[in-house]
Every structure is written in C-alpha cells, then in structure tokens.
Amino acid sequence: MKEPILEVIDVSYSYKTEKGPVPVLKDINFKVYSHEFVSIVAPTGTGKTTLLKIIAGLRRPDSGKVLLMGEEIRGPTPKLAMIFQDFALYPWLTALENVELALFHRKDLSKEVRREIARKYLELVGLGGFEDYYPRELSGGMKQRVAIARALAAQPVVLLMDEPFANLDAITAEGLRAEIYNMVFNEESTVKAIVMVSHNLDEVVELSDKVIILGGRPASIMAEVEIKLSRPRNTRDIEFQDYLDRLYSLLSISLKV
Ligand SMILES: Nc1ncnc2c1ncn2[C@@H]1O[C@H](COP(=O)(O)OP(=O)(O)OP(=O)(O)O)[C@@H](O)[C@H]1O
Questions:
Q1: Per the database record, which ranges form the ABC transporter domain (predicted)?
Q2: Which of 31, 146, 176, 178 has the most C-beta neighbours closer than 10 Å?
Q3: For 188, what's the count of Cα atoms within 13 Å in the CB-facing half-sphere?
Q4: Which of the listed residues 12, 15, 197, 201 should we mutate to test ligand 1's pocket, taking the one with most ligand atoms within 8 A of CB?
Q5: How many angstroms separate the alpha carbon of residue 44 from the centre of ligand 1?
Q6: What is the pLDDT of residue 231?
Q7: From the alpha carbon of 199, which atom of ligand 1 is closest?
Q8: Residue 149 falls within a domain, yes or no?
Q9: Is pLDDT above 90 for 171?
C-alpha cells in the first residue's frame, strides 16, 4: 500500500485567550498522498489558517499530531514551504535575493551555487530577466511568482499555500492558476504534495485532487471529496460544474452546523 506524504492525525487545537480557551479544531484527520493537490475549504473564521499553521509546525496541536513521511512535525522545517496571500517578500531585496533567502540554511552550498539555484527557480516561474527587480517594481502576479520560486528553492517536500490567489486581480489569478500545477509538479521541483487553503470554490475544483470541507465550532471535517477530472480542467465542462454544485451544497450545510 502506498504511504502518505502527510498525515494529520486526531488534531485538536484551542487558542488560549484572556477569556479562556477558544476551541477551533477538533479531531481533524486526513492523509495526503504523493502528487496530490489537497484543498481545505470552510466558511470564514472556521480555522483553515490555523490548521495550515499546525501542519507547517508554526503551532503545536493540543492533542494529535502531523506526520511528514512518517516523522512527527515538531516545529518549522525546510521540508515544508509556505506561500501567503500577501506574498511576504522583503521589499529591500531584489527578486533574486528574495529567492536566495530560502537557501540561507544551506551552509553546504557556496554563495555562487545558491545564486544559481535561485536563478533556476526564478526562470521556472517565468521570471528569467527580472532577477534585479525589487518587489515594488513587480506586479502582484510577478510578486507571487517570486514567492513561489522562493518556496520551491527551499526544496521542500510539501508546499502549503494560504489563499495564494486572493490578492491578485481576476485575470492574473486565472493565468497563475493555469500554470501553478506544472510549476510545482515537475522534474526541477522536490515538491511531492500541495495543501492549499481557499474559499474560492472555482479555483478549488480547478486545482484539487481532494477537497477537505471543515465546518462547525470547533471545526471538524464535514466531507472529503475527490475531484476526478483530467487536467487541464475546463471550467465550462458539465462535470466541472457538477463538482462545483456539490461543493457549494456541502459548504452551505457546513455553514448551518
Ligand atoms: N491569535 C488568535 N487568538 C485567538 N483567537 C484566534 C487567533 N487567531 C485566530 N483566532 C480565532 O480562531 C478562529 C479560526 O481562525 P482562522 O484564521 O484559522 O480561520 P480561517 O478559516 O482561516 O478564517 P478566514 O477564512 O477568515 O481567513 C477564528 O474564530 C479566529 O477568531
């Protein structure tokens, strides 16, 4: 039987506030296999970002655990890279320097080699020639491409994305969505699985192999839906629309829980 790349096991989490604990996640269980693109969807404020932070090792669950290729995640690790909706680039560094930063922990590599790797990933995301540009000189879509290059340059096993297209205009988002799957899953990349948080169901159907729907307070998994459509996907296909309708109705049920 194939082993999961990522395993979320019985994860529960509460925020500790002055008014007492606020339970956010309860008994979350799911698995992500090799070359799977998994999306987590839920009504706003349900705990999607919190779950992503737990997977990233940025927060420890109160109970349960997350395994990455069988090993428990106990803190941040270069094996997991994260992409945020606000790009999170350093404005005083060039595109190339921002990407190079992902390799700062690779003391085994010379500066020249690190620079070469960074250049290769900028090229991969379509930004060859923009190495010396500062973030302020780049469009939103280009900034997100730099962030993707930086995540890939860290040579992670899993890529985590928190609403990666939310701050882009519709046309730019559409273009990047069309490219992201092949940008991330190819022979130049070490990424074996993607977990994305989104509340845009169109993009979720377009990109995912599996969708996890959270609902309730604290949130638990309401449904897990596999999207069995070949790629590239056409948003106008009847089957695409069927999946979309199904997710909308599951999400509206989760709103009532
Ligand atoms: N640092 C914090 N302290 C206390 N409560 C928090 C904290 N961060 C988040 N919360 C609460 O935890 C719940 C889940 O938040 P989270 O950001 O994970 O939800 P989300 O599903 O990602 O929301 P959105 O779709 O709006 O981004 C919310 O009710 C939020 O108010």
A1: 6-241
A2: 146
A3: 17
A4: 15
A5: 8
A6: 93
A7: 25
A8: no
A9: no
Q: Which of 11, 26, 49 to mutate to test the pocket of ligand 1 (most atoms within 8 A of CB)?
A: 49
Q: State yes or no: ipTM above 0.85.
A: yes
Q: What span, in angstroms and rounded, lies between the C-alpha atoms of 128 and 103?
A: 19
Ligand 1 site residues, Cβ closer than 6 angstroms: 15, 17, 22, 24, 42, 44-50, 199
Average pLDDT, the chain: 93
List, for residues 41-63, the tens digit of each pLDDT value.
998 899 999 999 999 999 999 99
pLDDT digits (tens, 9 = 90+) for 126-154: 999 999 999 999 999 999 999 999 999 99
Residue 49 belongs to some domain of the structure: yes
Q: Is residue 115 part of a domain?
A: no
CA of 26 to the centre of ligand 1 (A): 14
**pLDDT reported for residue 254:** 75
**Domain with 36 in it:** 6-79+156-256
Does any domain span residue 171?
yes
Is the pTM higher than 0.90? yes
Spell out the alpha helix ranges (H) of the chain: 48-55, 95-100, 111-124, 140-153, 170-184, 201-207, 238-256
Say what the pLDDT of residue 151 is: 93
Residue 15 alpha carbon to ligand 1 centre in Å:
9
Closest-CA residue to 142 (of 161, 113, 163, 122)? 122
Number of domains the chain is built from: 1
Percent of the chain with pLDDT over 90: 78
Q: Read off the DSSP letter of residue 219.
A: B
Atom 25 of ligand 1: nearest residue by CA position: 44
Nearest-5° Cα angle at 67, 64 to 71: 120
Q: Which amino acid is at 153?
A: A
